[in-house]
Amino acid sequence: MKNKIFVLLIFISYFSFAQESDLGVQEIQVTESFIPSVPIANKIMDLPQSQDTFNVETEVQYFLNSKQYLTSYSVDTISPAKIKGEPLSKLYSTYLKLGLGNNALPNLDVFYNSTRNKSFNYGVRLGFWQSYMNAKNEFLNDKVAADARQTNFNLFAKKVFDFGSLKASLSREGNNLLAYGTTKALWGSIADKDLLNQYWGYSNFDVSIESNQRQHFNYFAKLFVSDVNEQTESSVGLRSQIESSYNNIDYSVALNIDYDFNNLNDKVAFYEDKTREVITSVVPAIKKQFKNIEGVYGINYVMINNPDSSISSSAVYPSVRLDYTFVNDIVRTYLGVDGGIEDNSYWNLSKDNPFVLNALDNGNKSLEMNNSDVKYNAFVGVDSKLSSKLFFSSKLSYAKVDYIPFYELDLSSTFQNKFKVIYDNGTHLNLFSMIDYKISSSKGVSLSLNYQSFDLDTLSSYNYKPTFKVNLKGYYNIVDAIIASMEVFAEIDRSVSLYGDNVVQSQELGDIVDVNLSLEYKINNVFSFYLLANNLVGGYQIWQNYSALSPQIQIGVTYRY
Predict the structure, then answer these.
(1) Separation between Cα atoms, residue 189 and residue 429, nearest integer Å
(2) Is 439 within a domain?
(3) 115 pLDDT exceeds 70?
(4) I need a surface site. Which of 135, 166, 212, 365 has the fewest CB within 10 A?
(5) pTM, entire model
(6) Domains in the chain: how many in total?
């Protein structure tokens, strides 16, 4: 209805407007129809609020009456569960080794050591070895006696404290060798029988203290007293080092002091220039690590004093080393340079050549003693654990040295069976390589090679210092109870200097190639038998007029308790 009225009003308005003005014909179009709608209504929610003017608060109080009840109830204890760890290997306090052979009568070694203890450890060792054999002497062109005897004694103890560990050791080593070239028929014509023997007796006592490797401060100190041939060569020495760290930099100072007071025995004639000598070495250094590179930078300051001759000198040597680790700590390379003084004493020389002149020889003529002065020693090397079974190591060094010791046959000795020491200056190139391969738990093999060359000022040969040394070792556990091992060693390119008619000549010595074999049969963890076969090849001279004792066969038994 509303729609109709609306349309009618529009029509009347239009008609009235048309009467007042002539608008002509007009056309109206309606595009959409009218849609009625009712808007959404919102209900007003207005709730009335009432105020209660009458409010009552009630206070409630509670009272608790405490009462103690005595009971006799007890809880049964439960034992803690025991966790069984890895079983500890059984330790044996006593070890005995006894052997007999064509050259050893007998060979005896006894060891006693305290069993497992974290705070205190001690032990003692006794050793005896004696040989009765004849060897060919090239000078006499005859078989001569080559008897020898060796004794060893060592007593040691270690005590661990909260601040560190204290160690002490007392040892004695005696070597008595019959110099080749003296037949028993000639002994009666020699007044002093001591001239027939080469005797080297070394005694040493030392005590040391060392920290427990704390993080910021570590220390080490060792005091020792030693003697050779009953007051022929005596020494008192100190070895010490202190390490500390600050701001990721490690600082260290090493102090070494050697005081030699020799010629105390009136039966000997010690080299006069070394009757008393004090060698002091101070080595300050810092250590810094950056990523995989660890560097040690220091110097070696050495002072030498001779109170008898008022001779004193000092020198500074480098002490630098850089280590670089890569490939997940599998390969480590290093390089550096160092130097210092190397003491050439009676004892050190006798360990290399037991037939050098001692202080009793040839009308109180003594061995010339000089310290080797290593001006510098540059080196580079690599250590690599290629796998759990394979290890490789190699080192190359080049050194400039004054007073390098070499051995020379003393032609003035009665039987030409003693050696003097001669010295020369020059450079020394050395390469050492080693590879160790553990094939399995029951077998393995190792190979080492040592090459050296000298560029000397005077000598035309290296005098018993071979150019090549090769050593091949292998072991094989045939069964659980039988272990076999083999060693092949060689020394190649050996020579000596000969003097005659005021002309120095070089003479080649034969190469050394020999084989050692061993076989051990374990009856149980207590008893075992062994067989040794050493120097099976033979036929070579170790020193001039000193042939190798070969073959050396020995059988023996070992016992652990």
Answers:
(1) 47
(2) yes
(3) yes
(4) 212
(5) 0.78
(6) 1
